[in-house]
Amino acid sequence: MKSQHRRNFLQKAGLFTASALLSTSVPAWSRNLSKAIAEAGNIPPEKLASDESFWYYVQQSFTSSPAVMDLNNGGVSPAPKTVQDAMKRYYDLSNEAPSYYMWRILDQGREPLRANLARLAGCSAEEIAVNRNASEGLETIIFGLTLKPGDEIVATRQDYPNVVNAYKQREKRDGIKMVWLNLELPIEDEEFLVKKFVGAFTSKTKLVHITHMINWTGQVLPVKKIAAEAHKRGIEVLVDGAHSFAHLTFNINDLGVDYFATSLHKWLYAPIGSGMLYVKKEKIKNVYPMFATADDPLKDDIRKFETLGTRPFYIEQAISKAIEFHEMIGSERKQQRLHYLKNYWMEKVKSLPGVKLRTSFDPRWACAIGCISIEGKEPVELGSFLFEKYKIHTSSFTWENISGVRITPNVFTTTKNLDKLVEAITAFGQKK
Hints:
432 residues
């Protein structure tokens, strides 16, 4: 009776209802979106990518400010209104009686959430742990693997700073050896990239770290082929999927990797502070959790990586609404649109004087993220100009051998927005 009560409550709260987003109880704009999707059913995703009338309805699902053009979605993406509403509903419920509703009610929704994430990821639910972000997932593996002095790890200097620092800390603490590759981006040669990684492997290599989509420029790496070569040599594979999950269309199982971590508040549009860790089933027993468990830390249970203490259940349980939204749009439609938007603005600025693009136009090697620099100008100069003069929010950076302004549109971005971006970049180039 008690479990039935919980199940009924969760169903009412929307944790199990895959069709809730399309119900007649949702706002009119959402119903219009569902109608647009139904009518677009037979249109190829690559053709639909440029159909502004279709994407108008997707854009209405977000509450983006008209005062700021957000083109830094590579950092954090906003959640659509249906996800925001779910999170607020669960937050309000939690505050009615926190220890009851959080621990006895909402906490029971993690298993169906785990199943939903596993379906989306293309793996077993027993291989998915729910956490807070990609850094947490990656560092769980980095610090949780048993390594001894002299063991080698291969990674690139273009990997995410938190990851680089984690490896350096482990190197200093445990005497492992880091082998750093240096990539000149963009690269559109699969054979070259695979050989670059394989050439760094030795008999002492225990782990290779691969960033599926490099955050600075959006470069996509051939994870599957690098992983296959690593496994031939008994080397484990850890993938940073912070920017690829729910952005590119793939299944984790098809990649053939051992560990995969991502942030769900990027391309899945889940609430800020949500992430996911994949650990191949037979590898779970080999990894220590980041936070201590009450029993065997090397037990064969993915849930040991979820021992985080008190956690924001209201954030966690709204992830299922983000999954619904993503699946309603369709992964392939979404990927095609994101790639179209990136190429839209890059094509218009590529011939401007002094412009250098650090991102491929080819869909095999990039998607939404684009990186631009202007000869003779510091990235911060362009970034500041875009915001101060046009209220266009981007990300300026200098990291290793890469510098530029990262520009990342999203499904709520219009081509009119990007026309304004092109106007701004042109004006900056003409500025004395």
